[in-house]
Amino acid sequence: MAIHTSTLASIYEMQGYNEEAIVIYEELLKKDPHNQEAKLALIRLKTKKHHFSGVNQDKLALFVNAKTQSDYQKLEQWLLG
Questions:
Q1: SS3 sequence, 60-78?
Q2: Cβ atoms < 10 Å from Cβ of 72
Q3: Spatial distance between the Cα atoms of 2 and 77, rounded to a whole number of angstroms
Q4: At a CB cut-off of 8 Å and minimum separation 6, what does 44 contact?
Q5: DSSP string of 9-55?
Q6: Given this model, what pLDDT does residue 35 score?
Q7: Mean pLDDT of residues grouped by 10 in the chain (81 residues)?
Q8: CA dist 59 to 3, 18, 49, 55, 79, Å?
Q9: Which of 8, 25, 40, 80 is the most buried (most CB within 10 A)?
Q10: So where are the chain's domains?
């Protein structure tokens, strides 16, 4: 039995196993609905999965690749604009 953690999900994502990562992040979110890392990862993975068109590519890139508090603040400023 595998232990599903955000680390394992992240490894799956880095290896391109996005569906497996999504399953783990969804399980983590069921256990802890306030898990911000899982929420953001699911949005990022599902955005990649659906290849949304008509999206501001600069903002999409910032959203998908956000890692620092500064990145998240830029996104928040843009969203609340």
A1: HHHHHHCCCHHHHHHHHHH
A2: 15
A3: 39
A4: 63, 64
A5: HHHHHHTT-HHHHHHHHHHHHHH-TT-HHHHHHHHHHHHHHHT-SS-
A6: 93
A7: 86 92 94 92 81 68 84 84 72
A8: 34, 21, 17, 8, 10
A9: 25
A10: 1-50, 54-81
